[in-house]
Design brief:
heterodimer, A: 310 residues, MetI-like fold, 2 domains, two-stranded antiparallel ribbon, disordered N terminus, B: 277 residues
Amino acid sequence: MRELLSRASTKYTRRSARKKGLGGRTVYPLLWILPSVALMVAIVVVPIVDLFITSFSEVGLSGLREGFNGVENYVSLFQDPVFPRVLINTLIWTVAIVGITIILSLGIASLLNEKFVGRRLVRAALIVPWAVSLLITAVIWKWIFDFRYGTLNLILKELGIIEKNVNWLAQPATSFPAMIAVGIFVSLPFTSFVLLAGLQAISAELYEAARVDGANRWKRFVHITLPQLRPTLTVAVVLNTIYVFNSFPIVWAMTRGEPLNKTDIIFTYLYKLGFEERQLGVAAAVSVISFLILIAFSASYVWFVTRRES
Amino acid sequence: MLNAVRAQKAFIAVVSFTLLVAMIFPYGIMLLTSLKSKDTIYSIPPTFFPEKWVFTNYLDVWTVVPLSHYIANSVLLASGSTLLALICAIPAAYALARMRFPGRRIYLYAVIATQIFSPIVLLVGLFREMRWFGLMDSLWALVLINGAFFQAFAIWILSGYFASIPYSLEEAAWIDGCTRLGAVRRIVLPLALPGLVTTVIFVFIQSWNEFVVALTLIFTETKKPLTVGIFSFFGRYDVDWEYVFATSLIATIPVVVLFLVIEKYLVSGLTSGGVKE
């Protein structure tokens, strides 16, 4: 890929050196990106601007703005006793899912990097949770975790691990870890494939040389695999962190953030505020805050991507 | 030494088998439950396999919910979103791969940023905007929103493919009297076909699976796509799990098959991307 990129860039210089006149070199390319820019402005930029305005506005039940009200929405947000809990939940949610996913995926990627019978089958199986709608996967897990009729209690009882059924999704102490587990389950495929691509890019000669020097399997992993894999690991961490923000369907299907908002993450909280309690102004304030958090991530991602390519 | 190799082989076999089972397990449960009768589903103690295999669940579900509407809506909105994303992304990706222009860097950042925002962050703004446009409860709103958010992915993947096609091929076509657009159509697009197929399938699947925007903007039962339709089973007193899972399976199979087709191209595209600063 890198070779392709550098080759592509020499094409640019050749091209700009020639300066083929195509009727206004600066206007012409802009026509090519015009549809994409128009769509982006209409559906991404306008709502962002509207969010900021709405977050400083009084909003009626129907969603219409009724004039500015300063920082009132933010004040009532921070006065909501639930909000700190939601933020902490979101932090735990993200760190746990990204951390555990990366560790497990490292193992899965190493496994898939070996040759063994049935590898294609395992690969195909690993694709499935990535392809299936997050909502459907979450709904299945809700059923598996069901108190009376769920498969998990059935299996655990058969194995003699529990004596009485556990009501997994009724209390936060079990439901939140259960949902995190589902979050990890759906993040594994993407992360494993990314790391596998990284592993396959490591030159075999490095391992050969280390073997000649007498390095054992563990030493080879620590001194060759991990350092060589670092850029890939960074991509995996950043992309996973961003994708975790899409996990609304998991919580929505499994607990709806209940009981008493104790299993809410920021986006289920936002949704309830905006579209169940109809406090669109406060919901906009939540959106602005999560928007700013995402911007921080985006900035680090863009920084990383551009640094890698230069 | 031979023992060590054998032990390693056994270890790999065990781990890979566990992984295989773990990944398939929930979807196996989905299949088994979709073939159970309601009595078996709500029996205590529960059973792992159906007592009777009730294949008629897959026929009944069409009358229990407006399934044909759900499917038609999902097909329409996913095709519409894919088409819109492609129409915007193809010329933009080409410009990024082949041209230098003022604001290119800012545009590139904007594309990456769009890829990062999930629509849920902008949901309140999107809701107010679509109401203002009079697009509430309309599939058009979903097409616009999915198209806008997934075009970033399409631009990212396609510009990588376009940049990898030798420029000299296009130049040769110009000399033969092709216009720039003609060269794109006759040379670039056919050569970037794997990239195009990957993009089409990925955007289609993403739109097909989209949930939260549809949940917020669509109210009428016959306008719901599959994801929201499946979720509407939960409003009732007891959940018809057999129908939930029959519907889910119908919604899932085409998507998984399509995904397996593009898997090879997808990972390299997602991680490398070919956009040059």
